[in-house]
Specification:
The radius of gyration is 23 Å and the shape is elongated. The longest helix is centred in the middle third of the chain and has 21 residues, at 129-149. With 304 residues, the protein is α/β, with parallel strands linked by helices. The chain has helices at 4-11, 15-25, 42-56, 61-69, 90-109, 113-124, 129-149, 155-175, 196-206, 221-231, 246-258, 289-302; strands spanning 31-32, 38-39, 184-187, 212-216, 235-239, 263-267, 283-284. The strands form two sheets. A five-stranded parallel beta sheet has the order 4-3-5-6-7, with helices on both faces. A two-stranded antiparallel sheet has the order 1-2. The chain is built from twelve helices and seven strands.
Length: 304
């Protein structure tokens, strides 16, 4: 048996955090001496190691505690005796991801607003926005398309679930703060309507402290040009979601280049097929939203 100081040393979890996890989530239950001191056995230290590993990999503490208590994440008993930090099994993390996505798609299939919101609550509770957006939230959105293709989901139900995701992303975007002047304008070219990836990117880069004006879907070339003239923004980020978006995106890029927009970047599933990229200096962004936000933020910083 170990004192809380010894359990902290073995697990790498500070004593105040150990007490907080016990009090808030009940994930551990140390025994008490007659004097009221906490004592921890090896199994409890292993739970602390599991909690630490999940939290370090981006999970919210509440969701990590729930998953461990429910048996969704196996605790590596005996880990406390081994060297080095505990790393949760990749299979456990993948299983949690797949389960969360399946619950969201099932809720969409049932056309239940309450179940859809509950599934989104669980996804957003799994970690910070940066931790969930690429590995959980956007894959869940993509899974809606798979369900529709398989005939399990109507167009109306898919739209309802996507709208629920859009409201969550808009809330994240708004919560990041509204700067006095935008540095980057984000939106889609004319005719393009699949905006969740672009909105996720706008939220991610705004959370990095970059001023953003988000235009949304199906924006005319004239509208893009007018906004740049009025806002004096320095960068444009255009979502090219599908192959069908490429011609309109190419026309928009040509218009922005003609007006000497300092930084132009494109991202999305159809972006790599835009033929004018090599000779123009246009940034082709990484697929992952968080990585793309870093690239654009650093490009803006270099041009100051």
């Amino acid at each position: 048996m170990y004192t809380i100081k010894e359990a902290s040393a073995r697990s790498g979890v500070g004593a105040p955090l150990i007490r907080a996890w016990e009090r808030r989530y009940g994930v551990i239950a140390p025994v008490r001496t007659t004097s009221g001191y906490r004592l921890y056995d090896d199994a409890t230290v292993d739970v602390l190691l599991a909690m630490r590993g999940l939290v370090d990999s981006g999970w919210a503490a509440s969701e990590a505690a729930r998953a461990i208590t429910a048996g969704e994440v196996a605790v590596a008993y005996g880990a406390a005796a081994g060297p080095g930090p505990f790393v949760p099994a990749a299979q456990a993390v993948a299983a949690h991801r797949d389960q969360s996505i399946a619950k969201f798609v099932a809720a969409a299939e049932s056309a239940s607003p309450a179940d859809t919101e509950a599934a989104l609550d669980a996804i957003f509770a799994s970690g910070s926005f940066e931790a969930i957006v690429d590995d959980l939230l956007l894959p869940a959105v993509a899974a809606l398309g798979g369900a529709w293709t398989a005939g399990r989901l109507s167009v109306a139900a898919e739209h309802a679930a996507s709208a629920a995701v859009g409201r969550r992303l808009a809330a994240v975007f708004q919560a990041a703060g509204v700067p006095s002047r935008p540095s980057v304008i984000v939106g889609l070219p004319p005719g393009s309507r699949h905006e969740l990836g672009a909105l996720a990117f706008a939220a991610a880069i705004r959370r990095r402290g970059v001023g953003v004006l988000y235009l949304g879907q199906d924006v005319t070339i004239e509208g893009w040009i007018d906004v740049f003239a009025r806002s004096h923004a320095r960068a444009a980020v255009i979502g090219v979601v599908t192959e069908d978006d490429r011609p309109a995106a190419t026309a928009l890029l040509e218009a922005l280049i003609a007006r000497s927009v300092q930084i132009i970047a494109i991202g999305g599933g159809g972006a790599a097929g835009v033929g004018m990229l090599p000779e123009t200096g246009i940034l082709l962004l990484p697929v992952r939203v968080v990585d793309a936000a870093v690239v654009v933020a650093e490009a803006i910083g270099r041009r100051r």
